[in-house]
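Q: Can I see a sequence and its folded structure?
A: Here is a first one.
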Amino acid sequence: MKKVLLSLVLLAAATVGFNNNSIAQEATTNQVVSGPELSVDKDVHDYGTIENGANGVCVFTVTNTGNLPLIISSCKGSCGCTVPTWPKEPIAPGATAEISVKYDTKRTGPINKSVTITSNAVQSPRKVVRIKGEIKPKPAGSAPVNGGPTTQG
């Protein structure tokens, strides 16, 4: 009789413990994070193959998917040839804004650069986006840069 009673007590204790654990996991899963959140329309902008000296500007659209204003404190290119411009005013919940990135397309060859966006987003305060592509060489016989010699083919 003692064994049966002890088994029932242990079974009841295990059931209560399992239910409490399930409730705790459910509460954690259903928690809503309060604060600003940054979402970007794309992680990579691909210029494809472009002409030397072409317009090197691309735009990333950011959305505040949180419930408090999003503030982008900085955007930094991985080198001096990649220059981002970002909104300095807070982005309201649900609103969008644009981050413009200008790449110096007078540099021949492949493009593979990054821009780090730093904000007050709760889940991901730093977001890295990339630009990639290929810049064609200057055409033969094109005007010299900075008074240098021309190249004749």
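Q: Show me another, different protein.
A: A second, unrelated one:
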Amino acid sequence: MNFGSVRRPTGTVRCRYCSTSLVATPGERAIQCMQCNGVTRIRRNHRIPQPMPMAPPRYFPHSRGNKRAVLIGISYAGKRRGYNQLDGPINDVKFMRHLLCQRFGFPGDCIMMLSDDQRDPFKLPTKDNIRMAMQWLVQGCCYGDSLVFHFSGMGAQVCDDDGDEVDGYDEAICPMDSFEKGPILDDEINEVMVRPLVHGVKLHAIVDACHSATVLDLPFLCRIPRPGTCHWEDHRPLSGTCKGTSGGQATLISGYSDGKSNTSMTPDSYASVGAMTHSFIKAVECEPHGVTYGRLLTAMKAIMLNSGGNCNLQGPIGGMPIRKIANFSGVQEPTLSSSEMFDIYRKPFVM
């Protein structure tokens, strides 16, 4: 994809790359072009004021247990001109739900699933629904809460316009209506899901998408030059903008990728799962008595290198064998970022 920024009168934006005239949705920070797939930044001083937020739909779970999760899978069926739909995201959320319930004791009625195979409009992963789901996840969080956010789909990069990114780019996730309303930028994800986390609350995000290594905009990124070692990079913006929590802990497990898709084609008689999601679930399942963050990342990397496109997950997909891995995000190895630095080889991974 191509990315850039451009100044235009309020209400319309011209695609930086193909000059198509695009209608800017009120309050959005970027817009994606259906003609060329390019993402164009909307300058801060040209944004249309955001309308009053909508009330959460009745579908949203009323249960407020101390274990809650939002799981999002998007295939973009019929949405991307010139591209096939993604294989894997719909199954990814089903397997993640199975893992959370069976392994970590998450109540089923405290897990919200958004996927583009749903008929209920409130269960579709639109930009508005994803925003409200993120708010629902952290709203009223308190000491002892364990929260999970999982996204499987497309990611994007957009030129940074406020100087808070080390590499000069904002990362983003693409909802199913990204071509109409644009992606959700890491600045917004950080503001909505990270900053409200109070002391004693932990959030784990697992993101299976390209350009997702720092999509929560967390202040510290962990590098593992070789097994048994780690190096934390300080990604706090020089501007002093706060990207941390209100005392809680946020951790992102995602993947490094160069944005080039490496999708495994699968026969119709088989179903597939995403490479990042698959490696995460297998690494957890292979350690029935628990695992540290360091061991988890090491196991995930080994699974990615050795799976060769074959999958033997057991789980919730009835009547269809899961035998293939679809690396739609082009992930080459797992990455870890966090709101705080810690010893990844000593700290247990617990959801």
